[in-house]
């Protein structure tokens, strides 16, 4: 099994989309007249985080998995990556592909960005899926762990550091696909532009910056979009009570806990996540 066999059954496009002054890398698939679903990865992640989900969704929906601002092979402005900037970039991408509204699926940082977007631009967000979302707490130990592991993975030549960084996301490591993702991430992390921009990607792991970007209950209470919260019971970056607090703060949110699952429920438990997501999207459809 590999990324290419995961995608082999669908017609997809690996695209570079002009978004304002930047170019955004995207994987696009599905009917051009379908409702838009945009998949957003986590901190220092990239669009390949959703290769196990795009084929299942592309039968009905116009799918976009993107490298977010400063991430992957998307443009890298030299400024700290704070949530309003990520939201601005997301809106620029929606404009560029002609998506007046979109269903947003965000994992970790991606969920933080998606939630902020829903609170600021309710007319643009048809529904929200928040997969092990970050951004509601300041946890110095977790933040330091993320900074240290990411810097080692990016700045050390030994690929084992990149593998260790990826393994943090899984409760049960998939040797074959995990190794392929390790090689992809190693190439991204060791690109000179990525290394120069690393401090900006880790800005939200600094206490002062994180504090001013937190998703507080009053902001989550403003979210009107139908919301599904998905969590792994072995998520190393946040325990189940954090998920329960998120679902309580967002009006009408639904919570699903996956057992024996880490920080990538959409990937590690794709067989559970994909039908759940499709059922949720169908109920939240705008057509």
UniProtKB/TrEMBL annotation:
Pfam families: Abhydrolase_1. Its EC number is 3.7.1.14. InterPro entries: AB_hydrolase_1 (IPR000073), AB_hydrolase_fold (IPR029058), AB_hydrolase_sf (IPR050266). It is an enzyme of class 3 (hydrolase). One of its GO terms (cellular component) is membrane. Transmembrane segments: none annotated. GO terms for molecular function: hydrolase activity. Signal peptide: none annotated. It comes from the Bacteria. PANTHER family: HYDROLASE, PUTATIVE (AFU_ORTHOLOGUE AFUA_2G14860)-RELATED, MONOACYLGLYCEROL LIPASE. This is 2-hydroxy-6-oxonona-2,4-dienedioate hydrolase. The lineage of its organism: Bacteria, Bacillati, Actinomycetota, Actinomycetes, Kitasatosporales.
């Amino acid at each position: 099994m590999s990324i290419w066999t995961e995608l082999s059954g669908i017609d997809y496009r690996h695209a570079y989309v002009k978004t304002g002054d930047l170019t955004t890398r995207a994987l696009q698939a599905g009917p051009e007249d379908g409702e838009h679903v945009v998949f957003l990865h986590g901190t220092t992640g990239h669009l390949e985080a959703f290769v196990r989900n795009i084929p299942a969704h592309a039968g009905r929906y116009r799918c976009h998995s993107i490298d977010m601002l400063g991430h992957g092979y998307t443009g890298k402005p030299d400024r700290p990556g704070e949530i309003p900037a990520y939201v601005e970039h997301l809106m620029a991408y929606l404009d560029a592909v002609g998506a007046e509204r979109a269903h947003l699926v965000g994992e970790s940082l991606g969920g933080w960005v998606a939630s902020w977007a829903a609170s600021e631009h309710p007319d643009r967000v048809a529904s929200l899926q928040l997969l092990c979302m970050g951004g509601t707490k300041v946890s110095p130990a977790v933040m330091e762990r993320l900074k240290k592991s990411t810097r080692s993975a990016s700045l050390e030549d030994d690929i084992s550091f990149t593998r260790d960084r990826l393994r943090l996301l899984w409760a049960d490591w998939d040797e074959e696909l995990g190794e392929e993702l390790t090689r992809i991430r190693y190439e991204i992390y060791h690109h000179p532009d990525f290394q120069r921009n690393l401090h900006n990607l880790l800005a939200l792991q600094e206490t002062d910056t994180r504090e001013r970007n937190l998703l507080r209950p009053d902001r989550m209470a403003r979210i009107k979009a139908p919301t599904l919260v998905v969590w792994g019971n072995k998520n190393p970056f946040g325990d189940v009570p954090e998920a329960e607090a998120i679902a309580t703060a967002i009006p009408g949110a639904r919570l699903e806990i996956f057992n024996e699952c880490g920080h990538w429920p959409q990937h590690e438990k794709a067989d559970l996540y994909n039908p759940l997501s499709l059922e949720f999207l169908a109920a939240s459809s705008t057509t």
